[in-house]
Amino acid sequence: xxxxxxxxxxxxxxxxxxxxxxxxxxxxxxxxxxxxxxxxxxxxxxxxxxxxxxxxxxxxxxxxxxxxxxxxxxxxxxxxxxxxxxxxxxxxxxxxxxxxxxxxxxxxxxxxxxxxxxxxxxxxxxxxxxxxxxxxxxxxxxxxxxxxxxxxxxxxxxxxxxxxxxxxxxxxxxxxxxxxxxxxxxxxxxxxxxxxxxxxxxxxxxxxxxxxxxxxxxxxxxxxxxxxxxxxxxxxxxxxxxxxxxxxxxxxxxxxxxxxxxxxxxxxxxxxxxxxxxxxxxxxxxxxxxxxxxxxxxxxxxxxxxxxxxxxxxxxxxxxxxxxxxxxxxxxxxxxxxxxxxxxxxxxxxxxxxxxxxxxxxxxxxxxxxxxxxxxxxxxxxxxxxxxxxxxxxxxxxxxxxxxxxxxxxxxxxxxxxxxxxxxxxxxxxxxxxxxxxxxxxxxxxxxxx
Length: 450
Hints:
The chain is an alpha+beta fold. It has helices spanning 2-22, 42-54, 63-83, 91-109, 112-119, 123-148, 155-163, 190-208, 214-221, 243-250, 293-311, 317-324, 328-331, 354-360, 399-429, and strands at 31-35, 38-41, 172-173, 176-184, 261-262, 267-276, 279-287, 347-348, 372-375, 381-392, 395-396, 432-434. It is 49% helix and 14% strand. A 4-stranded antiparallel sheet has the order 8-4-10-9. Strands 2-1-12 form a 3-stranded antiparallel sheet. Strand 6 and strand 7 form a beta hairpin. The two termini are 23 Å apart.
C-alpha cells in the first residue's frame, strides 16, 4: 500500500493537471467525495482509470473503487498536513517542482512552444494551473514521511518476526550474486581533445558575436538528451552536478558563457539561465570524445595483463582494483560493486547490467572473466573484467544468508501497519462524504462510509 501511495502522489500531479486542462469544455464536473475541505472529482477517477487501462494494469476487484480509495487516503494525508504547522512548502521548492514538471512535458513534446500548443495556453498559465497540485503533492508526501520516519526495527525484532512466521509465509529469495570489477578507460588522444576544444571555442565565439544563439547550436551539435531542449538542464545543486561542471557553472556571472570545461562526461561550454538559492539552472553544449581503435586495443591489452597477473597471484584483485580501476564507485571497495537500489552488495540477476549478466552467469565463484567491452555510468566505452565473489540460488529465506532482505521486508511490514493504523484513526475524526454511486465499494478501510 505504501509503495502504491508514493507512486500515486507522483502520478497524481499529471492526472489532475490533465483534468484541469481537459475539463475546460465541461460545465460541471461531479464531486464524488469530500475529505476535510478537499474534494475528489469524477474526472480524477476516470483519468486514472484510463491511464491504468492503457498501461495494462488489472485488478481482482473494482478498479475505480480502488482508485477512489487511494485518492481518499491522499486527501486524508493532505487534510492532516494542512493542520500541521511543521509541514511547509517553500517557494523555492514549489518553483523547482514546477520547472521539473514543465521540463517533463517539454521532454515528451519536444519544446516549450509545442507544450504551449498542446495545452493551448502559455507556460506561465500552465504553471499557475499546476501550482496547487504540486503544493498539495509535496505536503502529502511530507505528511507520510513524518508518520513513517520513526519506524525502526532491531536485529532482535527481525529474528523474532522471522521465527514466528508460518512456514507458508517465509518469503522466497531470488537467485543473487556478489561481484567485483576492474574497468580500464581508453586514453583519449591529445589530437582529439584539441579538435573538440577548438570546435567548442568556435561555437562560443559564434554565440558571443551574435552570429547565432545558444539553443539552436545545442540542438545541432550537443551530444546528450538535453540537446533537443536547447541544451537546458533542470535546477540542480552542486551535489547533483559533475564537480568540474559545477565549479565552472557556479562561478559564471550573468549570462556569460564558460570556457571549455572537461568533465567525466565530455567537454562542455556552459551558460547559466537562472539561480534559486543553492540551485542553478544551466544549459550546455557537450561534445564527447571519440575513442580511436588504437586506444581501444591498448586498453584491452592493459586489462588483459591485469587479469593475467591476478590469476597468477602476482597481486590480489582488491589491490589491482585500487591501483588500476577507473570506476570511482567500486575501486576503493576492493572492486566490489554495491547495488544502488539497496545499498547492499547482492544483486538479483534481473538487476545486473546486461553486459555483466551474460558474462558472470556462466562463471564459477572466484573466477576472473576475460576482458569485455561495455559502457560505464558516464556512457563512455570501457573494458572490464569481473570476479564472481558469491552466488546463491533461489531459496526460502533464512537469517544467515538473507538478514538484510528480511530486515527490509519487516520494516516495510511495520511501515504499512503504522500507516494503516494512522488512516483508521484519522478517519474517525475527519469529515468524509462519499457520493451514493460509490457506497457499494468494498473498501479496505471501512471507516470512509459513516
